[in-house]
């Protein structure tokens, strides 16, 4: 294969590879196939390998140990960039370059993954997936453990589920779903048991916020780095919160509402990971525990929940430029312990409890029209459900092959 073709291939942001380690391995193999002629090309080719996205073990054991890289001064700044990205996770938002962005193959589309939850006296391990283009739900592989009240988030090409409650105890375990394989695998346990937690992901890190450990309400926060497989403690919130929700806006982590074991909260606080300190945000108009939250067009939405007297259908949004909350149209159903996700400028509220029964219904909010519309219901009723949106390539075709 000619050099120009190889360079164009590995430089493409749409290259479809399961992981960046494959790209590095392929480059080194190609160079070694004609070492005399190709060794001089290593620095130029390495510029197109996204070294910061390699796992730390691979970076140290394979890249730094490779003489074709280690012995070339022209490669050292690329290694340094990758090491800084790993060693300074709080600063990742400012360490951006084309090499810190995930590749996005042509044809990837967003799907909603609804994970676990409960109905009647059952706790679910089952997971289902929604295609907003066909308005259709379909089952995917079940989690390894039954979980309700878990934290669910997507990052890169995977869905992550942390903590929750299995019907007997609160959990510190966590697992990851790979849609290409339709398979769940366990990842490193959290440092603390957490159910009823808030969770969000930014700059390649997953943050787990507050929750309940089986004995007390938590203000503590920890984050997971998939590149190292390590959990790290973060600054604690000012308020203990279980059944809070987390949303990401302008690289900041917002923690909304919840219950502190005494009071239902309308308070909101915000963490800028670059600063490492929680700051107060104007409180919501209503107390909301077990609410849903999402961001559309730079506005932060909080939907439904429980104010201590009833499940709510009302919703409100925060304008960070005006620093104020305002009401929006209420949902069709009262919902608490539900989930809210955003796809292509629309919010979706799914599952939860209306005060008397678990729900499988879902509705979509159009911010431009300030209107909720009912869409196809989930296959199962799910209160205390977790959900996340993940971009997938030909998901239905892959599921057909897997079955």
Automatic annotation (TrEMBL):
Gene3D superfamilies: 1.25.40.420, Kelch-type beta propeller (2.120.10.80)
Coiled-coil intervals, chain numbering: none
BACK domain ranges (all copies): 6-63
InterPro entries: BACK, Kelch-typ_b-propeller, Kelch_1
Keywords: Kelch repeat, Repeat
Pfam families (UniProt xref): BACK (PF07707), Kelch_1 (PF01344)
SUPFAM superfamilies: Kelch motif
Name assigned to this protein: BACK domain-containing protein
């Amino acid at each position: 294969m000619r050099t120009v073709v190889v360079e164009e291939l590995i430089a493409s942001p749409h290259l479809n590879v399961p992981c960046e380690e494959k790209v590095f391995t392929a480059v080194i193999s190609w160079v070694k196939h004609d070492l005399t002629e190709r060794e001089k090309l290593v620095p130029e080719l390495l510029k197109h390998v996204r070294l910061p996205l390699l796992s730390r073990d691979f970076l140290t054991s394979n890249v730094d140990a490779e003489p074709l890289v280690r012995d070339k001064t022209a490669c050292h700044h690329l290694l340094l960039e990758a090491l800084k990205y790993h060693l300074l996770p709080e600063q990742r938002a400012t360490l951006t370059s084309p090499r810190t962005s995930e590749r996005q193959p042509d044809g990837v589309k967003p799907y909603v993954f609804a994970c676990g939850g409960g109905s009647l006296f059952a706790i679910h391990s089952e997971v289902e997936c929604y295609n907003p283009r066909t308005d259709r739900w379909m089952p995917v592989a079940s989690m390894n453990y039954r979980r309700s009240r878990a934290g669910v988030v997507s990052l890169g090409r995977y869905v992550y589920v942390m903590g929750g409650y299995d019907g007997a105890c609160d959990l510190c375990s966590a697992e990851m779903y790979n849609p290409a394989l339709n398979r769940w695998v366990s990842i490193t346990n959290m440092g603390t048991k957490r159910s009823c937690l808030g969770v969000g992901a930014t700059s390649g890190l997953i943050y787990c916020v507050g929750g309940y450990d089986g004995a007390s309400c938590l203000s503590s926060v920890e984050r997971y780095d998939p590149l190292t497989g390590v959990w790290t403690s973060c600054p604690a919130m000012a308020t203990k919160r279980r059944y809070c929700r987390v949303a990401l806006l302008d690289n900041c982590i917002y923690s909304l509402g919840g219950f502190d074991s005494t009071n239902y909260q309308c308070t909101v606080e915000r963490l800028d990971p670059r600063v490492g300190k929680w700051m107060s945000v104007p409180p919501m108009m209503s107390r909301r525990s077990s609410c849903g939250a999402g961001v559309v067009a730079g506005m932060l939405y909080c939907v439904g929940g429980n104010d201590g007297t009833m499940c709510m259908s009302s919703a409100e949004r925060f304008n960070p430029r005006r620093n104020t909350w305002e009401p929006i149209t209420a949902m069709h159903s009262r919902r608490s312990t539900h989930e809210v996700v955003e796809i292509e400028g629309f919010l979706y509220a799914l599952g939860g409890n209306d005060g008397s029964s678990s729900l499988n219904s879902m509705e979509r909010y159009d911010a431009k029209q300030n209107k909720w519309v009912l869409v196809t219901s989930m296959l199962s009723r799910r209160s205390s459900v977790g959900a996340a949106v993940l971009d997938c390539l030909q998901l239905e075709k892959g599921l057909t092959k897997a079955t």
